[in-house]
Write a structure and sequence with these properties.
two-stranded antiparallel ribbon
């Protein structure tokens, strides 16, 4: 879950996401996905998602666009009120969810 804090702490990544949210340019989306894929290759994640504050998936590294499960949404809600540990838990739940669907 350290990876989430690294991304969150990156001004370059934050600027990229802000630019993409404003313009929805495919080139910006591709750059965000490149960040996700680099993290996947350096860690054991099988899917990384960018979600809005309501939990709607905006981008995901696998392009499946499936919504977050209820437990992931609840963890995300806790994270959004300022609990960084809950953010890590939300990410862990989302990863487990994808692994379970794939049967791994």
């Amino acid at each position: 879950m350290v990876d989430a804090s690294i991304i969150r702490g990156s001004q370059t990544f934050n600027d990229l996401v802000a630019r993409w949210l404003d313009s929805r340019q495919p080139a910006d989306a591709a750059e965000i996905l490149a960040w996700f894929q680099a993290i996947e290759q350096s860690a054991v994640y099988s899917d990384i998602r960018l979600v809005d504050t309501s939990g709607r998936v905006l981008l995901d590294s696998r392009g499946n666009g499936s919504p977050l499960a209820l437990d992931a949404l609840e963890a995300l809600s806790s994270a959004l009120v300022g609990n960084v540990a809950a953010l890590a838990e939300a990410l862990a739940i989302a990863v487990r969810e994808v692994l379970d669907r794939r049967g791994t």
